[in-house]
Amino acid sequence: MGSSGVKQQDLANSGYAQNAATTYGGQASGLYSSLAPALTAEAFNPQGFGPTTLAKMNTDSQQSLGGSNAGVTGQAGLEAARTRNAGGTTAALDASSQSAQRQNSENAIGTDLQDANLEQKQQQEGLSGLSSLYGTNVNAEMGEQGISNQALNNAGQIQNPWMSLLQQGIKSGGEVASAGFGNGGAWS
């Protein structure tokens, strides 16, 4: 393949790289139209568990503690019936009720803390995702444009063999002409 074929191949490679860059740009646009709003929402308005899940978590805790407290109350009632001493279980019932309320409060605080941690994690994931999208797409597009520029540079550096022959002919003709006119304008 002659140098003109190499030059044509470099120009074709530049075109392929430009097409790939355009494709990456289009894909980036498509990704951004769907992912960027979702990641932006996650970064700037993280939802955590969400109100429904938080309510369910708190209700589950309250039901569990309520069931435990009811079990203690039932057991105390049985004990009072067996011993015929209803006043003997009052302290145990009060302690059980206080313990259940304290645990319920701790569970609610724990749920809120878990929710806050999840919101912070979602926020960081959103920001990280946005940064990654930007970097991936820009780097791919810039890389393809760099390949295109390199191919164009290579094509510009290839010497046309016909031009080289023409330049040699002009140079040789000039040398012949100056040698022939070296004797005062007459051919030797």
From TrEMBL:
Residues 55-72, 95-107 have a biased composition (Polar residues). It comes from the Bacteria. Residues 83-92 have a biased composition (Low complexity). Residues 43-107 are annotated as: Disordered. This is Uncharacterized protein. It comes from Granulicella mallensis.
